[in-house]
Design a protein that fits this description.
mainly beta; 11 strands; 124 residues
Length: 124
């Protein structure tokens, strides 16, 4: 069982930056592809970004390309989401997810483990 704990959310103004972190309990963290998803009130959970087990492949939603960067540090069992030029429409609860294997997917159902989420609120 992999436990994921997100941190770094908060209330910011449009144009500001935040860095989310997600630390995993699993010692074999490097065996997992990782993803970030978000869910706004009244909306479905949507894909934000993902990274392969070794960081060699990255994927982003069109809405965040050029503004968000996903990275990972396998020595620290941690995946990050650097969010720049934040917009009010980025407001949501952000979740990290883990999937055993080297490939990432854009679909939430393909991930095996989830964190509890961290709130990001961007004011205009």
């Amino acid at each position: 069982q992999v436990q994921l704990v997100e941190s770094g959310g908060g209330l910011v103004q449009a144009g500001d930056s935040l860095r989310l972190s997600c630390r995993a309990s699993e010692r074999t963290f490097s065996n997992y592809a990782m993803g970030w998803f978000r869910q706004a009130p009244g909306k479905e959970r949507e894909f934000v970004a993902a990274i392969s087990w070794n960081g060699g492949r990255l994927g982003y939603a069109d809405s965040v390309k050029g503004r968000f960067t996903i990275s990972r540090d396998n020595a620290k069992n941690t995946v990050y989401l650097q969010m720049n030029s934040l917009k009010p429409e980025d407001t949501a609860v952000y979740y990290c997810a883990a999937r055993l294997g080297d490939n990432y997917y854009y679909t939430a159902a393909r991930y095996d483990y989830w964190g509890q989420g961290t709130q990001v609120t961007v004011s205009s």
